[in-house]
Amino acid sequence: ENEAAPALVAVHPNHEFVSVSIGSDIRVFDLRDGSGVKLVDGDGGHRDSIRSIRFSRSGKLFVSAGDDKLVKIWDTITWRCVSVVVSEKRVNSLAISNDERFICFADKFGVVHLVDLRDYKSSDSFPINKKAVPILAHYCSIITRLEFSPDGRYIVTADRDFKIRVTVFPEEPLHGAHEIQSFCLGHTEFVSCLAFLGNDRDGLRLLVSGGGDSTVRLWDYASGS
Q1: What is the mean pLDDT of residues 180-206?
Q2: Distance from CA of residue 207 to its chain's centroid?
Q3: Closest Cα partner for 82 from 115, 107, 51, 36?
Q4: How many CB atoms lie within 10 A of CB 47?
Q5: Residue 43, pLDDT above cutoff 90
Q6: Once rounded to an integer, what is the mean pLDDT over residues 61-80?
Q7: Across the strands, what pairs with 70?
Q8: Is residue 100 predicted with pLDDT exceeding 60?
Q9: Rounded average pLDDT over 26-35
Q10: How far apart, in whole angstroms, are the C-alpha atoms of residue 109 and residue 107?
Q11: Between 2 and 23, where is the model more confident?
Q12: Residue 6: pLDDT above 80?
């Protein structure tokens, strides 16, 4: 009952802002002049612990989500909350596709949901009652981390049952089943963090993972070795 969410930090890709969240509170600081940023949210902000915060690759969007089952999408030009997506379960992790067309978030039951951003226009809000669509699942294992690969071809999910799953992320992810590319199996405790090395220009498919077994592992994630 007294579980506390960790402090989270997200840095704008152009180093213009840094966002920090503790509990249900989000604070944003403008690194260009050292000032605080006022967040505009007519919904009153998050009501429970925040579990994940992310900037999009261009820095135009910022997304926050957590135990209040809300996924909030912010425009970083105005710092106004432009849309709220309601999840059926508590949200544990989220990621934004590299082309900024989609948001994916994972709930406490291990289901990954997708939100389509293609109808978003800067300074305009999303349609009311924006829906999220389930696209894949870890079969009741809590997903601890969710990431898109540097080339955008895969979505990588880690869970409390020691697994790392690499799934093909198609051009139209709302249509058809999602093909599993590989499993990276070797951790003996929960996996808590993921990071990619290199990018598609280097021709590398390297992933680093760490977790509760006190090991750091380097993977060729395309093959799972």
Answers
A1: 86
A2: 17
A3: 115
A4: 12
A5: no
A6: 94
A7: 86
A8: yes
A9: 95
A10: 5
A11: 23
A12: no
- What the chain holds in terms of domains, given with CATH numbers, is 1-137 (2.130.10.10), 149-224 (no CATH)
CA angle centred on 71, ends 68 and 77, rounded to 5°: 130
One-letter amino acid of 198? G
Determine how many CB atoms are found less than 10 A away from the CB of residue 185.
Answer: 11
**Phi, psi angle pair for 146, to nearest 5°:** -135, 125
Rounded to two decimals, what is the model's pTM? 0.88
Neighbouring residues of 44: CB distance < 8 A, sequence distance ≥ 6? none
Q: What CA–CA distance (Å, rounded) separates 85 from 128?
A: 9
Q: How many other CB atoms are there within 10 angstroms of residue 223's CB atom? A: 11
Paired residues of 165 in beta bridges: 157, 183
Record the tokens describing residue 43, joined without a space.
Answer: 């919904």
pLDDT average, residue stretch 23-38: 94
- Residue type (1 letter), 141: S
- Checking if the pLDDT of 118 tops 60, the result is yes
Three-class secondary structure assignment of the chain: CCCCCCCEEEECCCCCEEEEEECCEEEEEECCCCEEECCECCCCCCCCCEEEEEECCCCCEEEEEECCCEEEEEECCCCEEEEEEECCCCEEEEEECCCCCEEEEEECCCEEEEEECCCCCCCCCCCCCCCCEEEEECCCCCEEEEEECCCCCEEEEEECCCEEEEEECCCCCCCCCCCEEEEEECCCCCEEEEEEECCHHHCCCEEEEEECCCCEEEEECCCCC
